[in-house]
Each structure stands twice: as structure tokens, then as C-alpha cells.
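Service request form, structural biology core

Requester: graduate student, group of Dr. S.
Request type: structure prediction, single chain
Budget code: on file
Notes: please return the result as C-alpha cells.

Sequence provided:
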Amino acid sequence: MLAHEHADADVATALLAALAKEPSAETRTALWLALGLTRDPRATSVLIDALQRAAEPRARMYAAQALAIHGSDEGRRALSARLDTERSPLARSQIALALGVLGAREDLDAIVAALDSVSEPVLQSQVATAIAFHGSGEAVTKLASLVASEKLDVAARAAAIEGLGMMLSRAPALSLGRTSRSANFTLFPEWLVAACGTTF
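Core staff response, request fulfilled:
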């Protein structure tokens, strides 16, 4: 988090060195997220490789999140390409969410199409949130149509309504995301975790 604010190359170097010798898959995913926060150019190829090669869908999910945090054009292209081939609904929903955060105009149709490939209400909610994160005028139209959709679970429609509220609010966009990055979510009270379930 410190490197994210100050672009500290030494932190990125230390993280890359730790990743090269880390045997724990769980710790590697945490290191990917940390590398994403550094926004160091050397992290791009490492995170793309993780997205393409990780065996577990959950690991690919973290690689996608790290690429969204990192924010490089090359990472966005890798996410877009992976969305076309990814078979895991969990990973697909999180790749769509990452693309939504990055907000490239050309990715909106693929994000919306990802809804057809996920059936679990929580994952549908994540994709609806991805559309809101996209932040475009076209995304407003897509969300409005999702609200009226009979095919979607109630939770996904609720996420679409929440997304519309987020996009149309006068408050700064994604302020909840900025707050959550600097907070320890494990200490949030249960009511706050439940309220934020579709956007975390």
C-alpha cells in the first residue's frame, strides 16, 4: 500500500524477489495483489503469466484483481483475451469485474456477455457491479435493462440498482473502494460486511 502511494521501486523489487522463492500458493496470490498496488512496470508480465497459467480459478481471480489494480494497457488486453477463453464462472466474473474497473469502452459488451455464463447469484451480482464500475453512459443503459430482467436473480438486479445509484450519485465515484483499500475489512462489523457484499 505504501508503494501504491509513492511508486517505490525498492518495494516492487522486494516483492518480485519474494514471489520468485515463495512455495505457498496462498501467499503468492497475496504477493500478486501487492505487486498490483505497486504499479511497477516489471509486475505486468508476472501478473499476466499468473492469469494465464494459474491452475486454480481462485488464483486466476486474484491475478485478475491484481491486474485491475495495476492498471496497465497490456494487462487490460490480457484480461480481455482471457475472458474469451476462461471457463470458470468464478474467474470469469472477476475478470469482468477487473475490466469494469479499468473502464475501457471496447470491453463493455464482453462484460455484459459474461452475465450469460454465470448462474450463481453472487457471481451475477459481481458482473452487474462490473458494469457499474465501467462508468460509461452505455453502462447506465445496460444496468437499467438488467433491473427489469426476469432472467437474473433478485440479488443481481439489486446489484444493478446499487450500481445505478453509484453511477448517478453526486458523491465521488468508487469512494467505497478507496476506503476499503485502506481499511482492515476483517474488523468490519457484520452489518457493514453484509451491506457491502455486492461491491467487495
